[in-house]
Amino acid sequence: MKVLFLVTLLFSFGQLHAEQIDVNEKLYLYKVYRQQTKKFTQHKTIDLRRELVNRSGDLSLLLLFRLDKIIPSPFIDSIAYHIFIDSKEEKLEEALSYLMLNRFLVVKQNAEKSSASAEAKERAGALLTKWSNLEKWDETSTRFMLELIQRRASLISQIGSAQAIIEAIESTPIIADRLDVEIGLKSALLPEPIGEIPGNIVSLFFKNDRSLAKATKLKELKDLPAEDESRKTMVAQLASESLVKPLFEMINSSKENLIIVSPEMAGLSEDAFLAALKVKLEETEDWKVIYVGLGSISPRLLSLSNQFKSRFAIMAIPDEAVKDGSLSWQTFIPSPDSKYGTQHGLGLMAVTDSASTTPHAFISSRRFIDHPHAYSFEQSLVIQGPAAGLLPQLLNENLKQLVPSYSDLSTYFPSRTHYPTHGQESVNLTVDSARLAARDDRALAVKFLIGTKEEILIDQYMLYDRAIVDSIIKLKIKNPDLKVKILLDTNLDLEMNGLPNAIFLKEMKMYGIELKARKSLHWEEADSEDSIVQFHAINHRNLMIRDRKSVFMGTGPFMGSFERRSPISFGIQLNTTMSSELADSFIDDWENVDTTYELDVENFEAKIGKRHLSHKVSSFLNTVFSVLLRAFD
């Protein structure tokens, strides 16, 4: 009865305070998890495992076996190495602390999950009670638990004797308890630092004009002056399209601020965005904008910011951290320079009124340029509620790491510690950067996949991330009846997206995974030098639909870690009623021979320009790249 009472206190906490969601605790967990992940990544567990194997004859196999029964990889590699081979207390403490943090987060998030049964929450709550010895759980309990983990890791690492250390590990419940037995949780080492964020209203948008007529019209109008009526008409049409209309509505109704992260803007699409900003800045005297550019900043955007120096800040993320002067509303970092033009980003995120009780977030694969993304397959999402308020705080944490010269960017990302609930939908989200060796989006996506019961529908720009591909294959092996359908962007071209996407196609098809591609809109144009340039519409989506109940959406594609991924990317998991509608749209396209086609994996031939490589050479390249990706990603 005591346990049940505690569970009710602990995991009905959000319900007792349903009007306010504590995002400050989530932010704190995020920072702690990121810090410990960074330290543990430096352990290079693969190298430690190799050394353990080479030195196995010198180790006590009985003690190693006892340790191996409790601790999974990759933690076992570092912990065993620093117990038996190189007794470094600091490294052992880091590994133990990170292991316990992972287990704590997994159980805590499982207990708070809205879709979990009452029994599952009760079992998870009982386990946390056992680990913490807390009679009452409140907003200070998480910090207490983290301090307890750190103290325990420190004590164990200082024991000295290998046998005594293992005995201490075996007697520490947060390490030794089997989560599959205690709470029926099999994937025990895939936590998210943030967890589920309840109380949101979520809307998805995935229908847009992809006609050649529109592409041709944009080309005809691009060189006309901004005052031309036909150009202005097209700009208005672009702003009213379903994929981006919510963003313009957010800007128009905003009262305090706009925070936006975007790749380079250009063309008529940029006209629409700049016009909306200019009107708002002129009409609302205290309204502020912080624009974080993923790549070069257009001259027109710089010009507009100069008109409103005290309220319009621009921050560009360069290839290397630099500092051009103190960051303020009057200055920009870095100064416009062609060397940053190589930096690219994928996707856009915007938040309005981040410190208010009604924050809104807009996240899209859409880019505000005319060629070729104005007529691609895209998706957009709007969130109203606590998740929208947390997004810029997570962004701020990443930017502080990316540009370490700036110790405090909080002025540009106003926020609250608590946000009121607005709806019934829960959101899981990540903000990360490949440059910081953070792959939270990958971890969220893998965990999303593992939860599939009957059907997974995948709509992707690129798919050659080893972890994602292997997770899909393992799901199919484990459950042969599982329906797996994947739509990719591929023109089987070495220069564009064909070869990377083709790397794992044959392997996936071998396991019964269904593969198709969207039919690309192809056309040719003469450039300024009268050379023929080829274009094609892109499947720019990054969507996964699980069992017609949940959706994973990302701003960046699933590429290998070695790629020049976007310096800031966002991953979102949604439990939304719109999942079924999105799945129906996917199946409609899948079954329509005018929109999709079967990928001829067996006869794949890559191209370099207009030259076809042989099937033998193409297959060899795929095999080599597949091995390299698995070895180094």
Verbal overview:
- With 633 residues, the chain is of the alpha+beta class.
- It folds into three domains: 2-192, no CATH class; 198-419, Endonuclease Chain A (Endonuclease, Chain A); 433-632, Endonuclease Chain A (Endonuclease, Chain A).
- It contains 24 helices and 22 strands.
- It has a 16-stranded mixed β-sheet, sandwiched between helices. Strands 1-10 form a two-stranded antiparallel sheet. Strands 15-16 form a two-stranded antiparallel sheet.
- It is globular.
- The two termini are 49 Å apart.
- The model is unreliable at 1-17 and 319-343 (pLDDT under 50).
Task: Describe the structure concisely for a colleague.
The chain is α+β, with helices and mostly antiparallel strands. It is built from 24 helices and 22 strands. The strands form four sheets. It has a 16-stranded mixed sheet, with helices on both faces. A two-stranded antiparallel sheet has the order 1-10.
Question: Biggest sheet: strands, sense, closure?
Answer: 16 strands, mixed
CATH fold category name of the largest domain:
Endonuclease, Chain A
Name of the CATH homologous superfamily of the largest domain: Endonuclease Chain A
> Treating each run of at least 4 consecutive H or I residues as one helix, how many helices?
24
Number of separate domains: 3
- Shape descriptor reads globular
CA-based gyration radius: 26 Å
Q: pLDDT under 50 segments (min length 5)?
A: 1-17, 319-343
